[in-house]
Amino acid sequence: TGAARPGAATNSWPTDRLFCSAELKEKPDMSKFLVEDIRNFSIIAHVDHGKSTLADRLLELTGTIDKTKNNKQVLDKLQVERERGITVKAQTASLFYSFQGKQYLLNLIDTPGHVDFSYEVSRSLSACQGVLLVIDANEGIQAQTVANFFLAFEAQLTVIPVINKIDLKNADPDMVEKQIEKVFDIPSDECIKISAKLGTNVESVLQAVIERIPPPKVHRKNPLRALVFDSTFDQYRGVIANVALFDGVVSKGDKIVSAHNQKTYEVNEVGVLNPNEKSTHKLYAGQVGYLIAGMKDVTEAQIGDTLYLHNHPVEPLPGFKSAKPMVFAGMYPVDQSEYNNLKSAIEKLTLNDSSVTVHRDSSLALGAGWRLGFLGLLHMEVFNQRLEQEYNAAVILTTPTVPYKAVLSSAKLIKARRAVQQNMMFIDQSRVMLKYLFPLNEIVVDFYDSLKSLSSGYASFDYEDAGYQTAELVKMDILLNGNIVEELVTIVHKDKAHTVGKTICERLKDTLPRQLFEIAIQAAIGSKIVARETVKPYRKNVLAKCYGGDITRKMKLLKRQAEGKKRMRKIGNIEVPKDAFIKVLKTQTNK
Ligand SMILES: Nc1nc2c(ncn2[C@@H]2O[C@H](COP(=O)(O)OP(=O)(O)OP(=O)(O)O)[C@@H](O)[C@H]2O)c(=O)[nH]1
């Protein structure tokens, strides 16, 4: 109910905002910020509702970054984030803001919106006392708006609803206000209506952060207790841990201990993210920043770990529940001699994305590799892309599968169930929230895309784990001229084996380049063939167009062909493009 929610709106917004002093910007003295002057908050929202744009405006308003036309998603630092226009990693920034003659320290933690990354959201929230819940004035409440609201509500954070994009022609902020009141029980006068794009009314957001969100409950006189809530690896400086201080003070030169591994380290550097690292020599309880302490081994900075002063052991803070992987895939180096390089790249990347689980695995066809668990298919693709972009690694990914529990007995029990409706609620006259129980396998691949296209983009979707159910499942092999393609071995429901097998065979036929000989593509359950396609022989002569005698052009084409071949994997004597497996898999559920 509304009564349980801490924090409420006040009606007056004084206008005497000061600017951020240059001195503070260059050399922040963190001792000036008493606990009561600190606000730690996150921005949460459904994907594309405008979190990153609002974060950019808040950074500009507080003088953290200059106002230029190029401030697009400053906190989205990863290349993959900029390319895909989505937030993957939560980022932190400390903002200095003057309000009614007083300097405040506002720690902003950006969060991702996609359903695959909700783990990052709950992690960010552990360092906060409040959230800005951003809702698009045109689209209204969507699936992740609801999911994120409940994450914040359960963590007992102050929720400030921000209705964004009021500049849009079809915006209906009043309708969204009513939805917020109905679904979240937040009085409509607490909603702040803004345009993050144009900057309209964004100052009210900062003022609400100061007035409605309580300062952190921490004790500076107690011995140091710092929570590691994120960490990254820098080739030259080692591990950079993002920390939130719950008690005490940490200074450069301090000897600190990790509660997780009991090792002692010396603090080489502490500071705030503004939004880039700015060394401050000290951090005090209630503050959020980074710390470098000579941790060289990537396993040393566990997310969720507590750091304390040597000789002053403390009770560790509650860590984080490890994220539950939903999608599993094998990962192998394209070239086995690259095994060790890939191993260290995976270790470094999993330090930064601890929601990926890693187990060693090996396969007759692919050699030594790993079995990785991801939170969803987008998460898997992003991880793969980051490996390639940030670590220059060439990998083979096998077909993603979901976890099954097999009971080894002859009696199979109940027929596999399709979705079962659990509950239904009308959000307003034109929107309804439906709750279904689904087999995970049915939603994991491109259910989301199909839902979007069927509903012309209107429906949105979120999911949580509902446990295991028994089902009649069979293992299906895909064969190329009689050789099993390890990457495409899948578990399917018995009734769908034929359709799924046929789709995979047809899709493979479209993706496989013709070769010198005929290729038979078959789907088999045990020794029974359930589908078959054939690829006719053909030789691609890349030099055919090179009439005349330009030798450099010929060499270029041959080089390109050789590079293309590096991205191929050999099954028997058949060359298969590396990305064929993902392409094939993506169509599997369009049965
Ligand atoms: N018209 C209008 N467009 C906006 C406004 N705020 C954001 N947008 C646009 O909406 C799109 C999504 O904005 P982002 O800030 O990237 O959204 P996000 O919620 O951070 O997205 P993720 O990080 O992927 O979750 C971008 O094209 C923005 O330019 C606004 O106030 N008005």
Essential attributes:
591 residues, Rossmann fold, Elongation Factor Tu (Ef-tu), domain 3, Alpha-Beta Plaits, 6-stranded mixed sheet, 29% strand, disordered C terminus
Describe the protein's architecture and organization.
The structure is a single chain. Strand 23 and strand 24 (483-484) form a beta hairpin. The chain has 14 helices and 29 strands. The chain folds into four domains: 35-212, P-loop containing nucleotide triphosphate hydrolases (Rossmann fold); 225-309, Elongation Factor Tu (Ef-tu), domain 3, CATH 2.40.30; 327-397, Alpha-Beta Plaits; 473-585, Elongation factor 4, C-terminal domain (Alpha-Beta Plaits). The protein is of the alpha+beta class and 591 residues long. The strands form seven sheets. Strands 11-10-16-7-8-15-12-13 form an eight-stranded antiparallel beta sheet, with helices on one face. It has a six-stranded mixed beta sheet with strand order 2-3-1-4-5-6, with helices on both faces. Strands 23, 24, 25, 26 and 27 form a five-stranded antiparallel beta sheet that branches. Helix 8 packs across helix 9 (377-391) and helix 12 packs across helix 14. Bound molecules: guanosine-5'-triphosphate (GTP). Residues 45, 47-53, 73, 86-87, 112-113, 164-165, 167-168, 195-197 line the site of guanosine-5'-triphosphate (GTP). Residues 45, 47-53, 73, 86-87, 112-113, 164-165, 167-168, 195-197 line the site of guanosine-5'-triphosphate. One of its GO terms (molecular function) is GTP binding. Residues 36-217 form the Tr-type G domain. It catalyses: GTP + H2O = GDP + phosphate + H(+).
